[in-house]
Write a structure and sequence with these properties.
By secondary structure, this protein is α+β, with helices and mostly antiparallel strands. The chain has three domains: about 1-130, Nucleoside Triphosphate Pyrophosphohydrolase; about 135-165, no CATH class; about 170-304, Nucleoside Triphosphate Pyrophosphohydrolase (Alpha-Beta Complex). It has helices at about 20-30, 60-65, 90-95, 105-110, 115-130, 210-220, 270-275, 290-304; strands at about 35-40, 45, 55, 70-75, 80-85, 100-105, 145, 150-155, 160-165, 170-175, 180-190, 200, 225-235, 240-250, 260-270. The strands form three sheets. Strands 1, 2, 3, 4, 5 and 6 form a six-stranded mixed sheet that branches. Strands 10, 11, 12, 13, 14 and 15 form a six-stranded mixed sheet that branches. β7 and β8 form a beta hairpin. α4 runs antiparallel to α5 (about 115-130). Bound molecules: zinc ion.
Length: about 300
């Protein structure tokens, strides 16, 4: 089920046991067929056919390969190592000669609605993490990048704290009415014009997924819910969220919206949702297929 959710279903073997094996990684970096995914300001290189632009080991100038911070993403099914890196200023002239363009990862995700988007999401989240966590969160000294991109270590030896990539869980839930004939959709103030979607919110420390679903629904819509069912999850690499998609059943229908967060929310019948999905609804537009909300809504149409 989850393999149809964009940015998920990765087919690379992440081969975490190799990350700390410096000799082996050095060998893999210099593999002639190794594949390198290039990013510029967190945008990924694509070719004119809107496919990912891979640089192979033999085409990657050795001087750049040695000096660049490479993120080891894993091994492809055919045993080819896969890496990602961010462009440095000195590579400018070289990269301009290549026939590629840099595309933001959200747009790339819409073009790559298969497992390749998962590779891009993994790489973007790690590269972004390097940018955001240059300094130790405990003492403020500089961090150094270790095990081919997957760990940061404080450079002050008296601290030497190790930091690992973060993932921030968000619950996103499609709430059904007590009779299961309607679902609850809403708009936050910051949504694009006309977009309506499932309600969502960040999980808090000390909460289970079910606790977070119950709390968010009560905070945003003023109703209690039960019968919480996990559907699927989605890595959302902006910068490193994990969307946890659930269904839930409301105990009542009278809404009391959070005026700080929710611009509008209401109950939508199957007919309304059908119109939404066909983009013929008079007021609102549905989430795009790249978002797990779209898949939650579609699944609800199938199961009830
Ligand atoms: Zn430190």
């Amino acid at each position: 089920m989850s393999s149809s959710i964009p940015y998920s279903g990765g087919l690379l073997d992440r081969a975490d046991a190799l990350r700390a094996d410096t000799d082996k990684l050095n060998e893999l970096k210099h593999h002639n067929e190794a594949q390198f995914l290039v990013f510029d300001n967190l945008c990924v290189a694509m070719n004119q056919n809107q496919e990912l632009y891979w640089i192979t080991g033999k085409d990657f100038p050795k001087e750049y390969k040695v000096k660049t911070t490479l993120v080891f993403l894993g091994m492809a099914e055919d045993g080819i190592p896969v890496f990602a890196f961010s462009l440095t200023d000195e590579m400018d002239l070289w990269i301009k000669k290549l026939n590629c363009q840099f595309v933001d990862v959200r747009s790339a995700g819409m073009l790559l609605l298969d497992h390749r988007a998962s590779i891009v999401a993994h790489a973007r989240s790690i590269l972004d993490w390097h940018e955001r966590y240059k300094y130790c969160a405990k003492c403020g000294a500089g961090n150094s990048i270790q095990i081919c991109g997957h760990k940061l270590r404080c450079s002050d030896e008296s601290c030497a704290v190790e930091h690992f990539p973060r993932t921030d869980p968000v619950v996103i839930m499609l709430v059904e009415s007590p009779d299961q004939k309607f679902c609850l959709l809403g708009r936050s103030f910051h949504y694009p014009d006309k977009l309506i979607s499932a309600l969502a919110g960040f999980m808090e420390p000390g909460e289970s997924i079910e606790d977070a679903v119950r709390r968010e629904i009560h905070e945003e819509a003023g109703i209690h819910c039960h019968d919480i069912r996990y559907y699927a999850s989605q890595p959302w690499p902006f910068p490193s969220t994990l969307m946890i998609g659930c269904f839930a059943r409301a105990s009542s229908v009278e809404l009391c919206l959070d005026p700080q967060e929710i611009e509008y929310a209401g109950w939508f019948s199957k007919n309304d949702v059908q119109q939404l999905l066909e983009s013929t609804h008079p007021q609102f537009l549905p989430p795009q297929p790249i978002a797990i909300a779209y898949h939650l809504i579609n699944r609800w149409m199938e199961i009830t």
